[in-house]
Automatic annotation (TrEMBL):
UniProt entry tagged with the keyword Acyltransferase: yes
Pfam families: Transferase
InterPro entries: CAT-like_dom_sf
Gene Ontology MF, one: acyltransferase activity
Name of the protein: Acylsugar acyltransferase 3
PANTHER family, A to Z: ACYLSUGAR ACYLTRANSFERASE 3, F21J9.9
Native organism: Solanum pinnatisectum
This protein's UniProt keywords: Acyltransferase, Coiled coil, Transferase
Family membership: Belongs to the plant acyltransferase family.
């Protein structure tokens, strides 16, 4: 296993101090019901030409200082039982790290667990309370390749907000005169309300075995073949297709591991509430919905894709017909329903989230080109599914975390391997 050595650690301060009038940033209801854990992402780049290590770090530090002036709550401290951010310009933690292996040893490893090395040890998924909401690590590999990883508190950003931040950071690094325009006004759309403070206090029992993560790629051509293999479905999206197949193969592995007995399966997915609220609004603004398979027949692709489409469209229609002040209560009820089912242990629970269609590969360019891989460390919760655009931005990379015994069955699934391949990169 690759090891790392910290070369330097510092706090990156804001280039422009936060005005006193903006120092108190109220968290929205959506922010408050989220766990205070870090959301971690890593961007891998081949050896930057015409830049040495000091220049690379200086570009990242200077641009981070500048972009934080616009994203000032990201450099503050979460206070008062997680209801507001004291935008006191504490800054973001920044680490410069040496990794004692080549990048290919990380990206060519079929087990995604090894990607954890580009994050500060034990930081991903842990509590972001009492420390900076943003922690960045620049990792230098023996081959000259680099990784830029960031952990951002889920209390202040959902996936959309996170990647708007990355986009603005990259654009700031490339263009001196660029000024981001994030709006920290989510609390005006989703003010605090009763009934949600304990929604995420559900306790998960310790796993009896190790969890394992694997990344699979659905190429554009394989997604087309997968689409053509199912009938009776009108214009399924690539996310719907990939999600349904991963879920089916996961449920099949679970059944085989359970002596052939099928346990009803529930998959929770996420909808972005933008543009019901403005696209520039930073914070948490998502709604969850769930699809259920009570029998083995219901996990078949045509049946499950049809259900995903139906439920998702139903939720979108209901959201469109709500007044703005009704959206938060509606979202709370959806979340409560899923949490209640998780606590009753009736279903095999899958948690799925898509970060596709954000244009991440083109937008996370700090001046030395696009990343060759964007990834996520292993999720501490079993049966978690994350979907990303692949480098072509036409295919999909899927990161799935399963118990080790189920993963050993899952990764041999013939239908999975017909349409998806374990993701590795060829890096010189």
């Amino acid at each position: 296993m690759a090891s790392s050595t910290i070369l330097s650690r510092k706090m990156i301060k804001l280039l422009s101090p936060t005005p006193p009038s903006l120092r108190h940033h109220n968290l929205s209801f959506m922010d408050c019901i989220n766990l205070p854990q870090y959301s971690p992402f890593a961007f891998f780049y081949p050896k930057p030409e015409n830049y040495n290590k000091n220049q690379i770090s200086q570009i990242l530090e200077n641009s981070l200082s500048k972009v934080l002036s616009s994203y000032y709550p990201f450099a503050g401290q979460i206070k008062d039982n997680n209801t507001y951010v004291d935008c006191d310009d504490t800054g973001a933690e920044y680490l410069n790290v040496k990794i004692n292996c080549s990048m290919s040893e990380i990206l060519n490893n079929p087990c995604n667990d090894v990607a954890d090395v580009v994050f500060q040890q034990d930081l991903p998924w842990c509590s972001a309370l009492n420390r900076s909401p943003v922690v960045v690590q620049l990792s230098h590999f023996d081959c000259g390749g680099i990784a830029v990883s960031a952990c951002v508190s889920h209390k202040i950003a959902d996936g959309y907000s996170l990647f708007k931040f990355f986009n603005d950071w990259g654009t700031t690094a490339r263009h001196v005169d660029f000024k981001p325009s994030p709006q920290f006004n989510a609390s005006t759309f989703f003010p605090l309300m009763d009934g949600g403070s304990n929604i995420m206090s559900i306790k998960f029992s310790p796993e009896s075995q190790r969890l394992v993560s694997r990344m699979y790629n659905f190429s554009s051509s394989n997604l087309t073949r997968l689409k053509n293999s199912i009938t009776g479905i009108q214009n399924p999206t690539r996310v719907e297709l990939a999600t349904a197949l991963i879920h089916k193969c996961g449920a099949t592995a679970s059944m085989e591991n359970n002596l052939g007995l099928f346990k009803p399966s529930l998959m929770s997915q996420v909808i972005n509430l933008r543009p019901l609220i403005p696209l520039d609004t930073i914070g948490n603004a998502t709604c969850v919905y769930s699809t259920i398979a009570m029998t083995e027949n219901e996990i078949e692709l045509s049946n499950y894709v049809a259900q995903i489409q139906k439920v998702k469209q139903q939720v979108r229609n209901e959201l469109k017909n709500l007044d703005m002040n009704q959206i938060a209560p509606y979202t709370l009820e959806k979340m409560k329903g899923i949490v209640d089912m998780m606590e009753k242990d009736i279903f095999d629970i899958y948690l799925s989230s898509s970060l596709c269609n954000f244009g991440l590969y083109n937008k996370t360019n700090f001046g030395w080109g696009r990343p060759i891989k964007i990834t996520h460390p292993k999720c501490p919760m079993k049966k978690c599914i994350m979907l990303f655009d692949d480098p072509s931005e036409e295919g999909i990379d899927v990161l799935i975390t399963l118990p080790e015994d189920e993963m050993s069955i899952f990764q041999k699934d013939k239908e999975l391997l017909e349409f998806a391949s374990p993701t590795v990169e060829s890096i010189k």
